[in-house]
Give the backbone structure.
Amino acid sequence: MKRDACFALTAYVFLFVLSFILSINLGLGKAESIHDPSSSLLYLRRGLMVIAALAIPWFTKRQPLSAFGWKLSLKWVFISVGVGILVGLGNKGGFNPKEPVAIALALFHTFATEIFFRGYIFKSLETWLKGSWSPILLSSLLYGLSYLTVYPIWHQSLAGNIAFVFLFTALGVLFAYSYKKSGSFFVPWMIHFFGVLKYGSLF
């Protein structure tokens, strides 16, 4: 296994175990799952994701921030917004787009998730796994499994757990594929951001 992938998978396991303990065992995930701005876990979990995604590549190989891909064409702006809204229309939860605090939390949540799972995990697995689809599928499965540390999802039935893992794995494939295709981190971030807004609250 390549060193980059080893570091990435180690970081994933550490965050998974820590998140499970804090969210499920200690019950801190109740407030986090409803996007309560006072939830300490909401900030801690995502803050650690950002730190891991930015710090580990820099300390291990001096990777610059530009490696994540920050260019964005107008074509991909339209694609990202359009696909994100379509995803969001099917989202029964999410963040209320009429509340500025919720918008800020949605930006932070989606940035942290995408920089960790796509910008770091996916890109690291690309250095180890051959082909385009292997790193996309594995990073997406890891993304789907991470939702077992979300308080209400863990307390579903086994069938519910499997359904949620499958759902978020499928979304992970969408995010990772769009990142691979566009070469821009902004694309999966924008799709994810527009996908977590609760559009039903606008009407």
